[in-house]
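Let us begin with a simple case.
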Amino acid sequence: MFSPSELFDLRQTEHASLFDDCQYAWEALKKITPYLKAHARSELKNSCLGRAFIGENVFIGEGTVVEDGAMIKGPAIIGRNCQIRHNAYLREDVIVGDGCVVGNACELKHVVLFNQCSVPHFNYVGDSILGHKAHLGAGVKISNVKLTAGNIMVEVEGLPHDTGLRKFGALIGDGADVGCNAVLSPGSIIGRNSVLYPNVHWRSILPDNMIVKNQAAFEVVNRRPRTT
């Protein structure tokens, strides 16, 4: 499940050439910077609600709305009919597909979002690729750097594999849904249509069509009236 076609419908991005000759989908992360250097241009077809900062080499497609306080540093390519909401922060090397949501106080850096991807509330996404209709709940954080030195490792056929990447957040397959306040450790790979419950801390690989449940215990007691 590591090849681009196993995780993503490559018809759901105008930037499928990023994945050419990639045996593993994470190899496309190395291509984002040169791809944008070759293809990004300053052209704004969007509308703005309020005042936003938009830097050089930023392309924004028709029908996209950029709300007050957003900052798009560039280089970036943003598709058609997107919502870039209040106080969103798009740092360097960002590719956003058509019909995407980048919400309030979300930060993106060195990422690819396929069409109709939703990153709507208080999210950090760095050095990652999110598939068609992938969704992050409020407060989801994708960690992209290990606390210890060295490159991110991924287990391939039972053996650790060096990705060659010091920074690598996650690959989230088409239709996957990550619940509120979950944290994905560096090098996480989430299969198509899988679900992670809120507050899960996930690392490693989750196959397609799986659910990760949070089994945190709760105590339920009778409510007693207060004495005055």
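The second case is a distinct protein. As before, the sequence precedes its structure tokens.
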Amino acid sequence: MKGVYQHCGDKHLHRYFAEFVDFRYNQQVAHGADDTMRVERALKG
């Protein structure tokens, strides 16, 4: 979370985390990086 006056309470932390993970996954898929491609890159590296 970025900013000065933001707070993430323990009660809702799982919701913020789920939204963050969903956003990152959707961005990877939108830019053409699927799970298969990531596994291939990991095995090569």
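Residues 10-44 form one domain. The chain has one domain: 10-44.
Keep these points in mind for the review questions at the end of the chapter.
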